[in-house]
Design brief:
single chain; mainly beta; Methylamine Dehydrogenase, Chain H; Immunoglobulin-like; twelve-stranded mixed beta sheet; six-stranded mixed beta sheet; 6 helices; 5% helix; 42% strand
Length: 997
């Protein structure tokens, strides 16, 4: 084991040059030997103090291969006169397989100083070569991140026979990129046969990048592909590794970004996996692995070979600052790297020695103990290294797990035998070593019906459905166990699931150092499933597929005790409420009749679950014993409920909570079966509870007689009800049968009362409403006797005829009675009604408090005499109409009552005094005629004298014309082109008269 110690002190001269140690595989932890690199101290030419020898250590990984050690801080001294200039160019040393210098080996004698110390930082004067380096069979390569103003570069020396070719990445004027910070070289990256240099540049544009470099015809390294980083400061590219993760013959790329973070997700460090797509890579990774906060996950990544020998290479990721440090082992598959670590090794798990920064550096892929499995060497900053050796991996091959018979018939089972379970095991080593025959022990567990409580089976000799067995190997053998059915099992539809899982019994061991063999401590292949299961079907009459497709159907209705269905309203059954209803009966009919060739098969564990409301109490069922009454009614229909089977259940309920306010009764019927039926839905049996109040409304006399007469009296002058007018009285009788409603509703008698005429004058003035002659009703709003007139307590006047009542009244000193001229009195009748708009009505109500006995409502009123005298004195009779309605007011929709409306009217006759016509004397008539004739003659004489009777003549009103002769010289001479006209020796003169007649 080669270990670099960059800060080690030379024991002879105390120079801190660094060193490389070789540690043999022994029990001792202190037998590492410092290698003699044969360094020469020439302070005038080079400074080797603090040159960090061992910062990079590598080997060719082949028999008789060479080793490489680098010191990236190796410094050349240049003299200019008495002043010296120092160039930190770095240097690498090659030694043979015996770790000594062989001067006959050109690999070892080559100076391996690729940087020109005679240049400054703009060239390669501070290149720090050896920060990264490595070997292949014929290539040695170095990373120099300080070259070209810390742009960085890579050097590659390739030996072909006796020729030596060197290549480097040129100066691209891209400073502070750190190309060469880490470097890997391999083939089958961009091309199958060509070598590709993969180098990290963690400061490329502050986000980092990975360069893929190829040889160019100009003997330089040229960039073929660049993979950029994804977060500023993540140091993407500070660690790289090549591995064929999916075994497709192309090397995939793994890149570390140890300072990547996500605060909310508490992520610290990331590893990006780029899958090779036949020589090409996508700019975005196919997988991103992350570690916990502050862990520097991805500080080191390494290809560790196929540690489980499954044909896919695996990788290790270091997280040196996660506690004492941890190393994550990831396995691969045909799809690439798995996203979950198969193993996480912590520095605290490595025995009594304390460890910190475990996982700072990684190197794997070599089998150091010759057990056919590659091992892993882990470094730290605690001056300790850890060799993690791979344990053998075994594959369980012959995992025979059978049951006999595959379909069980409960009728054929005996108390000692029913189902035979057989398990067989064998194994081999995943590396394929046929000599590996270690004794191992498997523990297997058989578990039946693990998801059912209680299970339906048990193992013979136990009372449990679980059996634990021990299986020693390598001898292949089988074990059989008997599985018995329990008595009276219900579920015969679903199969019995029998599962088997196994694990390796670990041998006791203590912590032990040294190269002892690990063959006796194998592990199971975790990529294999360690469990298996099988299903044991029951013998059923359900077709060739052994699946039962039932066709359960349900119909229900509420019936009487004579099994007659209750009446329906709009498709819903209705129950008429009565105190005599003590029981309800629900009839349920179930059938399993096929409607298609594929349904109607046996319904296993057919159940009917009935959910009833609190108003019903299940009491019995017919046939007896078919159902159980707990919180719900559960009826077992059969196991199975066979094809073409029918059943009827009649469930009796005690009506313990059906009240007046019960609107409906909802009973849910839910059919279920373990057979397959997708259309099973809960069925609702709904029963409406209806309560109808039987009532009647009658009026003693719907037609009343009254009159109006006397004189007009103002409203303010009225003090008693007698001052209003003649009295009226209407008597209504209300009869109801049924329960007292209490707070659930009120029966009311409402009146549409003709209160006034359209112009606002009083019509019929209500004075009081008597209930059963001893109580009064006062509707809200003060509509009864609103003027607070004195109401007479004497009812005698209402019992006498109206004529006698008027004659008995004492005469009151008032204005003389109104007389109506005979010529103005029309012998007619007028109707005052609210429906016709000839009267205004007011609505008021009186509640019915005593519903068990008939109730008499008497409404007393007065005819407003003054209104009839002023407005209807020209009519012989005025007919006034009104209505009374008996109705129910309730918020419970199931309580109802038919409304009753009666009409009442009153004929108010006019009893006004008519004026008698007077006789005229004959001589007065003759004198009046003579005087009239004399006056007519005088008028005619006067008109004649004024020419009133003379006709108007025509000439007196028409205009006149006069001709005037004009001399020739005075005539108008027309122009030359106008035609000559006839001479006109006269002109027309127009005159109008001054007036018209």
């Amino acid at each position: 084991l080669l270990v670099g110690a960059p800060r080690d002190v030379e024991p002879t001269n105390s120079t801190r040059t660094g060193a490389v140690y070789a540690c043999p595989l022994t029990v001792s932890t202190s037998d590492c030997q410092r290698l003699d690199i044969e360094l020469k101290s020439e302070p005038d030419k080079a400074i080797i103090d603090d040159m960090w020898l061992g910062v990079t250590v590598a080997s060719q990984r082949q028999p008789a291969g060479r080793v490489l050690a680098c010191a990236h801080r190796y410094t050349k001294v240049l003299w200019s006169g008495s002043e010296d200039q120092r160039r930190m160019v770095g240097k690498c040393y090659v030694r043979g397989n015996d770790l000594r210098l062989n001067i006959s080996d050109e690999w070892q004698t080559y100076h391996n100083e690729m940087c020109n110390s005679n240049t400054d930082t703009d060239e390669t004067g501070m290149c720090q070569m050896g920060t990264s380096a490595g070997f292949t069979a014929n290539v040695i390569y170095f990373g120099a991140p300080g070259a070209y103003n810390w742009q960085g570069t890579d050097y590659m020396l390739q030996r072909e026979m006796w020729d030596l070719h060197d290549f480097s990445y040129p100066n691209k004027k891209n400073g502070n990129t750190y190309i060469g910070y880490t470097t890997e070289v391999g083939s089958a990256v961009l091309q199958q046969d060509a070598v590709t240099v993969v180098t990290g540049a963690p400061r490329y544009k502050h986000m980092g990048a990975v360069y893929l470099l190829s040889r160019s015809p100009q003997q330089t390294l040229q960039r073929s592909l660049l993979l950029p980083g994804h977060q500023v400061g993540s140091y993407f590219g500070s660690a790289v590794a090549l591995a064929d993760l999916n075994n497709d013959g192309w090397q995939d790329l793994v890149v570390g970004a140890p300072y990547y973070f996500q605060r909310k997700q508490e992520v610290g460090g990331a590893v990006y996996v780029y899958m090779n797509e036949v020589g090409d890579f996508q700019p975005h990774p196919s997988l991103v692995l992350t570690g916990p906060s502050y862990s520097a996950f991805g500080f080191a990544v390494a290809s560790i070979g196929d540690v489980n020998q499954d044909g896919f290479q695996d990788i290790a990721v270091g997280a040196p600052f996660e506690g004492p440090g941890k190393v994550y082992i990831y396995h691969s598959s045909a799809e690439g790297l798995l996203d979950k670590p198969r193993q996480v090794i912590s520095g605290s798990d490595l025995g009594p020695a304390s460890m910190r920064t475990f996982g700072y550096s990684l190197s794997g892929g070599l089998d150091v103990d010759s057990n056919s499995y590659p091992d892993l060497l882990v470094g730290s900053l605690a001056e300790k290294i850890v060799l993690l050796r791979s344990r053998p991996v075994i594959n369980i091959l012959n995992k025979t797990f059978t049951v006999t018979p595959s379909k069980v018939d409960p009728a054929r089972c005996t108390p000692d035998s029913c189902i035979t379970v057989t398990v067989c095991f064998s194994y081999n080593q995943s590396a394929g070593d046929p000599k590996y025959k270690e004794k191992i022990t498997l523990e297997y567990i058989l578990e039946a019906d693990k998801d059912r409580h209680p299970p339906r089976v048990r193992f013979l000799g136990t009372h449990s459905a679980t059996y634990r067995g021990i299986f020693p190997m390598p001898k292949t053998r089988c074990e059989s166990k008997e599985l018995l059915l329990l008595d009276n099992i219900r579920d015969k539809l679903h199969p019995i699931v029998l599962s088997m899982n196994y694990s390796l019994v670990e041998k006791p061991r203590t912590f032990q150092l040294g190269p002892h063999s690990l063959d006796a401590f194998p592990v199971l292949n975790e990529d294999q499933s360690h469990q298996n299961e099988t299903k044991i079907e029951f013998q059923k009459e359900c077709g060739s597929d052994n699946k039962c497709y039932s066709n359960l159907q349900l119909q229900s209705s509420f019936v009487t005790d004579q099994n007659q269905p209750l009446p329906r309203l709009n498709g819903t059954q209705v129950l008429q409420y009565s105190r005599d209803v003590r029981k309800l009966y629900l009839s349920v009919n179930i059938s399993n009749v096929p409607t298609t060739p594929s349904n109607g098969e046996d319904a296993h564990e057919a159940l009917l679950n009935i959910t009833v409301p609190a108003s019903l109490l299940p009491s019995s069922v017919r046939p007896s014993g078919a159902c159980t009454f707990v919180e719900t009614v559960l009826c077992e229909l059969g196991n199975p409920f066979k094809r073409n089977q029918r059943a009827e259940l009649i469930i009796t309920f005690e009506a313990i909570g059906i009240m007046l306010d019960t609107r409906e009764i909802l009973v849910w019927l839910d059919l279920s079966t373990q057979s397959t039926q997708e259309d099973l839905q809960p069925v609702l049996a709904k029963l409406l509870v209806d309560y109808s109040i039987q009532s009647s409304l009658t009026i003693t006399s719907s037609h009343a007689q009254s009159h109006f007469s006397g004189t007009v009296v103002g409203e303010s002058a009225m003090q008693r009800e007698q001052d209003v007018g003649s009295p009226l009285s209407f008597d209504f009788q209300v009869t109801t049968k049924g329960e007292s409603l209490g707070t659930l509703g009120t029966i009311l008698l409402g009146f549409e009362w003709p209160y006034e005429i359209p112009n606002g004058k009083w019509l019929l003035y209500p004075t009081e409403i008597l209930v059963n002659s001893n109580e009064t009703c006062q509707p809200p709003g003060g509509v009864i006797n609103p003027l607070n007139l004195t109401v007479s307590d004497l009812l005698l006047e209402d019992q006498a005829p109206s004529r006698q009542r008027r004659e008995l009244e004492a005469p009151e000193p008032a204005e003389p009675p109104v007389t109506l001229a005979t010529a103005k009195k029309a012998k007619s009748e007028v109707v005052l009604s609210c429906s016709k708009g000839t009267a205004r009505c007011i609505w008021f109500e009186c509640p019915l408090f005593h519903t068990q006995h008939p109730t008499m409502f008497s409404i007393r009123a007065r005819v407003w005499n003054s209104t009839f005298i002023e407005e209807y004195s020209g009519f012989d009779r005025v007919k006034v109409d009104g209505t009374a309605t008996l109705f129910l007011r309730t918020h419970v929709p199931t309580i109802n009552m038919r409304n009753h409306t009666v009409r009442f009217s009153v004929d108010v006759d006019s009893e006004l005094i008519e004026e008698q016509p007077a006789e005229i004397a004959l001589w007065l008539v003759l004198v009046a005629v003579a005087a009239g004739l004399l006056l007519l003659g005088l008028i005619i004489l006067l008109l004649w004298k004024c020419d009133f009777f003379q006709r108007t003549r025509y000439y007196r009103i028409m205009p006149k014309y006069h001709a005037v002769r004009i001399r020739q010289e005075q005539r108008y001479q027309p122009g030359g082109l106008l035609p000559r006209r006839r001479k006109k020796h006269w002109v027309t003169k127009w005159q109008e008269p001054e007036k018209y007649y």
